[in-house]
Design a protein that fits this description.
Elements: E1 5-8, H1 9-12, H2 25-34, E2 39-41, H3 50-59, E3 63-68, H4 81-97, E4 102-105, H5 125-146, E5 149-153, H6 169-179, E6 184-189, H7 190-196, H8 200-206, E7 211-216, H9 232-241, E8 249-251, H10 259-270
Parallel strand pairs: 1-2, 1-8, 2-3, 3-4, 4-5, 5-6, 6-7, 7-8
Helix pairs in contact: 2-3, 4-5, 5-6
């Protein structure tokens, strides 16, 4: 299991203020290597030194599991389609530099607080769904050519991301089914899922072929996975027993203790 756990640098090392120091990214990469992890991930690449990350990853025999593919445009707005595709295409080039095969994408554009406040007058839910699937169908061709997987994100709108349109994995699975590409998948964030809906394992087990990545954190709190109401030992064991998912599990949580001790605790709990 250890080799399938990916450390999200921006949450694990964010500190009490939940603000990540990008200048320390090389130190954090070395730290997770000393703990025995093989994978790491991060969010936006634009504020980071990509050459430094690539060099440190190679020096420490680590792999970048996931980066953000988009921040500034909206899938659900057909007038934004070309700009969205251009942004994702640029991110794919960065992913290639890092030898990273997976990128996240969202249906909308966040503000600096990660709330979703853009309005789309006259644009109903069904038209948003059509716009998303049509744009993803175009992106699928690019992803197939570039040999990457674009992972569509769902978020909870109760606590963290008010205003986000895709707040249900069931709606996400319908979109992925409609697009029908092996290079467009859903990123199932079990924390967001736990906040918004129940019946977690049945929904996951029935749709493993539509899932491109997992994120885990406690519910409530978004802290260490052994806290809260979810039994991640059982959840991850059942996912792996299904035999359809061979990807990684991103540790996208905020520690309640020293990051190194927290990550050691994760290894004790899950491995």
């Amino acid at each position: 299991m250890k080799e399938r756990l990916s450390v999200c640098l921006e949450t694990i090392f964010s500190g009490v203020n939940r603000k990540y120091d990008t200048q320390s990214i090389d130190k954090h990469i070395r730290k997770i290597r000393t703990l025995g992890f093989k994978l790491f991930e991060f969010w936006d690449w634009r504020d980071k030194d990509i050459e430094k990350i690539k060099l440190e990853a190679r020096r420490n025999s680590l792999k970048v599991a996931l980066i953000a593919g988009q921040r500034k445009h909206a899938l659900l707005d057909q007038n934004d389609r070309d700009s969205f595709i251009m942004e994702v295409s640029k991110s794919i080039r960065v992913a290639h530099q890092l030898e990273c095969e997976r990128l996240t994408i969202m249906v909308d554009e966040p503000n600096d607080k990660w709330h979703f406040t853009r309005t789309y007058p006259g644009l109903g839910d069904f038209q948003k769904y059509l716009n998303i699937t049509r744009s993803l169908t175009k992106l699928a061709k690019i992803a197939e050519q570039e040999n990457v997987i674009l992972c569509l994100e769902h978020f909870n709108t109760t606590f963290d991301h008010p205003g986000y349109w895709l707040d249900s994995v069931e709606s996400g699975f319908k979109i992925i089914e409609r697009v029908a590409s092996n290079n467009i998948k859903l990123l199932v964030d079990i924390y967001h899922m736990g906040v918004m809906e129940g019946n977690i394992m049945q929904k996951i087990s029935k749709n493993l072929d539509l899932i491109g990545y997992f994120h885990i954190a406690s519910v409530p709190g978004r802290n260490e996975p052994w806290l809260g109401e979810l039994n991640y030992r059982n959840i991850l064991q059942e996912i792996m027993a299904g035999g359809k998912y061979s990807g990684s599990f991103g540790l996208e949580y905020y520690p309640t203790m020293d990051p190194e001790e927290s990550l050691k605790g994760v290894l004790d709990y899950l491995c």
